[in-house]
Design a protein that fits this description.
Helix content is 68%, strand content 0%. With 73 residues, it is an all-alpha fold. It has a domain of 49 residues.
């Protein structure tokens, strides 16, 4: 893993808690007549989408560079 992938993994794990909390509170406040619950739900989904992107960056397999020899010496 490269340093960028490790950083992406750490930030994705850090965004998991606030994103989940926003989604849970947004669902809980949907029954009220205000639009505050909908706004929290949208913010939570946005945070979780960013978290998903960071997980994808952390775990994707990069293709080898064209000049590298992968068959060995």
């Amino acid at each position: 893993m490269t340093g960028g992938q490790i950083a992406a993994l750490i930030f994705a794990l850090l965004l998991l808690l606030p994103g989940g909390c926003f989604v849970i509170l947004g669902f809980g406040m949907m029954s009220e007549s205000t639009d505050f619950g909908t706004m929290m739900l949208v913010v939570g989904i946005g945070i979780l989408a960013m978290m998903g992107l960071l997980f994808w960056v952390a775990f994707r397999k990069r293709p080898p560079s064209p000049g590298s020899n992968t068959s060995g010496p």
